[in-house]
C-alpha cells in the first residue's frame, strides 16, 4: 500500500507537517506495512515557508502597524523564501478587531525582499496570505527603493486567490476590520495606486487575476516585474507531489476548514485535482467541513470527536478522524 499524505495547515492548531504526522499514525495502524510519503502542502499563505524548507533566518522589520517585528525567512544558497504574514500578518496586528485597515502597511514585506536580494538571492519566492493591509503594495515598494523594477525571474509571488487588484478591499477588507465605508475608501485608494504603478512601471494590474492578494501587494510586485503564480501548484511542483502520486494507492489531504473555496486555489483542492487526474483515491480530513463541501471521502474532525476535543487535542483528534476515514476503505 502506497500512501501520500499532503495536508495543509490546520490554522491555529496544527502545522501541515504536524497534521500529516497525525494522519500517518492512523495509516500505520490501518496498514502496518504501508509505504508512506509525507508532503506538507501550502498555497502561498502562512505555512508556505515551512512547506518550502522552513526558516533559517530571522530579522527585524516593520510590522503591519508600524511597530518592529521579528520575521522568519529562508535563504538557501541563492534562493530565498519569505511570507507576507511573517512581516505584515493580521495576527501581528492583533487580529481583525485590533487592526487599522487604513494604516496597515506592507513595508515589512518589502524589507524582507530587500534583505533577501541584498544577501545575494537570485530568486525570491514570496508567499501572500494572512495579511493585515490593503495598501496596494505601496509600503513594500517604498521599502524596496531602487531594487525595483525586478529583473525577470528574480521574484516569484505565490497566491491562493484569483481576486483582481481593485477588488482586494471588497473581497478581503471586512476580514481585516474594514466596515463598508472603509472598504470604499480602500477601493478608491487601490484605483489610485494602480494608476501610479501603471505610470511608473508600464503595467496596468487593475483587472489582472491574482493581483489582489495581500491587499494588492501581489499586484504591485507584478507591476514591478515579479511573476505571480498559483501558490498551491508551485509548492506541489517543488515538493514533487505529482511524482509522488504516480503509483500511489491513496492520498490524504485536509486543512482546518474545508469548504467550496478549498477547491479553488487552495492546497487541498490542488491535491484533489492531481489525484483525480491520476486516478488516485483521495480522502479529505478537515477540522470542520462546510455544507457546500460535503462529499464522499470528506471527514470532519469536529464531527468525529467533538469540537472541544478537536481544539484541545488536535493531533490526536486528527489521528482518530483519519482512522475513521480509513476504516471505510477496503483492504
TrEMBL record:
A Pfam family this chain is assigned to: Gly_kinase
Superkingdom field: Bacteria
Keyword Kinase set for record: yes
Gene Ontology molecular function terms on file: glycerate kinase activity
Classification via InterPro entries: Glyc_kinase_flavodox-like_fold (IPR018193), Glycerate_kinase (IPR004381), Glycerate_kinase_RE-like (IPR018197), Glycerate_kinase_sf (IPR036129)
Keyword entries, A-Z: Kinase, Transferase
Any GO BP annotation: organic acid phosphorylation
Gene3D superfamilies listed in its UniProt record: Glycerate kinase, domain 1, Glycerate kinase, domain 2
UniProt record similarity statement: Belongs to the glycerate kinase type-1 family.
Protein name (Swiss-Prot/TrEMBL): Glycerate kinase
